[in-house]
Automatic annotation (TrEMBL):
Domain COMM: 134-186
UniProt xrefs under Pfam families: COMM_domain (PF07258), COMM_HN (PF21672)
UniProt superkingdom: Eukaryota
InterPro entries: COMM, COMMD10
Name of the protein: COMM domain-containing protein
Coiled-coil residue windows: none
Length: 195
């Protein structure tokens, strides 16, 4: 069991086994509720009364129900970070242990969730046709300066421009490294917002 988008742990395998045992006729509604609450970023997916009703419906104890809920939450948080072909996602889910019915429900729900995002991205790109962003760079080495004789100082020049404006930056190695660290931090923050 090896998928690059999800880490296979004993907890995940246990959660998948629990999910596979849930009644298929009621699972789709259960899954929808969790995904909707995740989208709304609601801290409580189910109230205590709702969890008790679900225990009766699925004929499981509270601990088993919580394992199923946590597994679905973890799975969807991972799924929403990636773009898959539905067929590939279906294969991956089967590969990590989901049965065919649960796989179909999960792929269907994921497709419904991701299609507005893909449509929005496509419309943003089509709206930006007149506003193309250009990025170019060059690397120079300063061999000496009035302050330092016979000293090589590598410098990077970054040029970011669009139809309206142009920005050029001169960066030393340490400046470029600091910029990289900051961009990486921004990327991590953006990834965490998706969770």
């Amino acid at each position: 069991m090896n998928c690059s988008w999800i880490k296979i742990t004993q907890k995940l395998v246990k959660g998948i086994l629990v999910i596979n045992q849930l009644d298929d006729t009621k699972f789709e509604q259960f899954l929808k509720r969790i995904v909707i609450k995740l989208r709304l970023q609601d801290t409580e997916i189910f109230t205590v009364d709702e969890r008790k009703k679900l225990q009766v419906i699925f004929k499981i104890d509270e601990e088993t129900l919580l394992i199923a809920i946590k597994t679905i939450i973890y799975l969807y948080k991972r799924l929403l970070k990636f773009i898959f072909m539905p067929v590939d996602l279906q294969k991956d889910l089967m590969h990590i242990g989901f049965n065919n019915e649960k796989t179909e429900f999960i792929v269907k729900m994921w497709s419904l969730e991701i299609s507005p995002t893909l449509s929005e991205l496509a419309s943003k790109e089509s709206n930006k046709c007149g506003e193309s962003l250009n990025f170019s760079w060059k690397l120079n080495t300063e061999l000496s300066s009035s302050l330092q004789k016979k000293c090589k100082i590598p410098k990077a020049y970054l040029l970011i421009s669009n139809e309206k404006e142009e920005n050029e930056m001169e960066l030393t190695h340490s400046d470029l490294y600091a910029m990289f660290i900051q961009l990486e931090s921004i990327q991590n923050d953006l990834d965490n917002l998706i969770l």
